[in-house]
TrEMBL record:
<dbReference type="Pfam" id="PF16113">
    <property type="entry name" value="ECH_2"/>
</dbReference>
<dbReference type="InterPro" id="IPR029045">
    <property type="entry name" value="ClpP/crotonase-like_dom_sf"/>
</dbReference>
<dbReference type="GO" id="GO:0003860">
    <property type="term" value="F:3-hydroxyisobutyryl-CoA hydrolase activity"/>
</dbReference>
<dbReference type="GO" id="GO:0006574">
    <property type="term" value="P:L-valine catabolic process"/>
</dbReference>
<dbReference type="InterPro" id="IPR045004">
    <property type="entry name" value="ECH_dom"/>
</dbReference>
<feature type="domain" description="Enoyl-CoA hydratase/isomerase">
    <location>
        <begin position="23"/>
        <end position="351"/>
    </location>
</feature>
<keyword id="KW-0378">Hydrolase</keyword>
<dbReference type="GO" id="GO:0005829">
    <property type="term" value="C:cytosol"/>
</dbReference>
<dbReference type="InterPro" id="IPR032259">
    <property type="entry name" value="HIBYL-CoA-H"/>
</dbReference>
<protein>
    <recommendedName>
        <fullName>3-hydroxyisobutyryl-CoA hydrolase</fullName>
        <ecNumber>3.1.2.4</ecNumber>
    </recommendedName>
</protein>
Length: 353
C-alpha cells in the first residue's frame, strides 16, 4: 500500500484505505448498526496483518460512517439462524475468528485509535477497547447486554473490564461483574472514570477530529479537540454499593448480598434488569470473571470465553434469548432453567482454566 488514499469498493462492509500513513477502517454496515459478521471480522484482521508489516503505515483509525453508532455488537441474530439450521461449525468459526481479532488488536504494534460516536455494545467493545487510544463523545454509550440473550460478556471484556484504570485510579473486579450482568450504559463521564475511554471530544467535532488524526497525528488532534473538563461519573456515587454487592466469588453470593443491601433504589434498578436475564448466564458470568481475574493474558481469557460461550450456545437459552430480544421482541424469555439454584455451576467451572 502506498501513502496516498486507497479505498476498497464502497459496498464492502468495512472500507479499508491508507491516507497519509494512517490505515483507515470504516465500518460500513449501517442498517444493522455495524453488527459484526464473519466478513467484517476477516476484512479487519487482514488489514491489520498487512499494516503491521507495512512501515509506511504508522497508525490505524477505526470509526463508523453511521452517525447513530459505532458498533451494536456481533450479529447474534445471524448466529441464531445458523444454529437453528444446524450449522454449528459456522457459528463456532465466527466466534473463533472474532476472538482472534480481539487478540490481534491488543497485540497490534502501532497506535490504534478507536473513534466511538454513539452505540457501542457487545462485539463493538472488542474492536475498540484494546486500541491504544479510545475516543468517545457525549453521544457514546457502552453496554454489555449478553445476559439478556442467554450468553455471556465476551470479546475479552471479562479480562479488560477487570483491569481498566481510568481517572478513578484503580481497577475493580466487582465493577466489572456489575457492568457485565446489568447491561449498565456507561456514557462519556463513566467511560473516562473507569478507563474504558482515554479521551472525549464533542460529537460535532468527530469528522474534524478524524481528519486531524490523519493530517496531523493523534496527539495534535487530541490537543485541539479533547474535552479537558469531563462531567462527574454517575458510577462514582455508586461504587461503594457496587463493591459491597458484586465483590463475591459466586452468583449465589451476589444474590445474597443484593438481598441484604440497604440501598433499595440500587437494588430495584439492578433487579429490574436481572429479572430478564438468563440464570445460567448470570452464574456463568460470575465464574468466568473469577477465573479470568487470574489468567496471565488476554489470549487465555479469550480461550475461557470461547469454551463457556460454546457451552451456552449449545443450550436453549441462547436461541431463546435472541428470539425474545431481537426477533419477536416480546420481553418474555422462557429460560431453562429459570432459577439460579437449578443451574449446574460445576459444569461451568470444569470448562475454565
Amino acid at each position: 500500500m502506498t501513502d496516498g488514499a486507497m479505498t476498497d469498493t464502497q459496498d464492502r462492509q468495512v472500507i479499508t484505505s491508507v491516507c497519509n500513513g494512517t490505515g483507515i477502517l470504516e465500518l460500513n454496515r449501517p442498517k444493522v448498526l455495524n453488527s459484526l459478521n464473519l466478513e467484517m471480522v476477516e476484512i479487519i484482521h487482514r488489514a491489520l496483518d498487512a499494516w503491521a508489516r507495512d512501515d509506511s503505515v504508522t497508525q490505524v483509525l477505526i470509526y463508523s460512517n453511521n452517525p447513530k453508532g459505532f458498533c451494536a455488537g456481533g450479529d447474534v441474530r445471524a448466529a441464531r439462524e445458523q444454529s437453528l439450521a444446524g450449522n454449528k461449525a459456522g457459528v463456532d468459526e465466527f466466534f473463533r475468528k472474532e476472538y482472534a481479532l480481539n487478540d490481534a488488536i491488543d497485540k497490534f504494534p502501532k497506535p490504534f485509535i478507536a473513534l466511538m460516536d454513539g452505540v457501542v455494545m457487545g462485539g463493538g467493545t472488542g474492536i475498540s477497547a484494546f486500541g491504544s487510544h479510545r475516543v468517545v463523545t457525549e453521544k457514546t454509550f457502552v453496554s454489555m447486554p449478553e445476559m439478556l440473550i442467554g450468553f455471556i460478556t465476551d470479546v475479552g471484556m471479562t479480562y479488560f473490564f477487570q483491569r481498566m484504570v481510568g481517572s478513578r485510579g484503580k481497577a475493580s473486579r466487582a465493577l466489572a461483574l456489575y457492568l457485565a450482568t446489568t447491561a449498565y450504559r456507561m456514557k462519556a463521564a463513566d467511560l473516562l472514570w473507569t478507563g474504558y475511554a482515554t479521551h472525549q471530544i464533542a460529537s460535532d467535532d468527530a469528522d474534524a477530529f478524524r481528519e486531524a488524526v490523519i493530517e496531523s497525528g493523534y496527539a495534535a488532534a487530541v490537543e485541539k479537540y479533547a474535552n479537558t473538563n469531563p462531567d462527574t461519573a454517575p458510577l462514582a456515587s455508586q461504587i461503594e454499593t457496587i463493591e459491597e454487592v458484586f465483590a463475591q466469588d459466586s452468583w449465589a453470593r451476589v444474590v445474597t448480598a443484593l438481598e441484604q443491601c440497604a440501598d433499595k433504589a440500587f437494588v430495584a434498578g439492578v433487579n429490574d434488569t436481572l429479572k430478564h436475564a438468563s440464570p445460567t448466564s448470570l452464574v456463568a458470568a460470575a465464574e468466568i470473571f473469577r477465573a479470568n481475574a487470574q489468567v496471565d493474558s488476554l489470549a487465555d481469557a479469550l480461550d475461557n470465553e470461547y469454551r463457556v460461550g460454546e457451552y451456552l450456545r449449545g443450550r436453549p437459552d441462547f436461541d431463546e434469548g435472541v428470539r425474545c430480544v431481537l426477533v419477536d421482541k416480546d420481553d418474555e424469555p422462557q429460560f431453562q432453567p429459570d432459577t439460579i439454584s437449578e443451574v449446574q455451576e460445576g459444569e461451568i467451572r470444569e470448562l475454565l482454566r
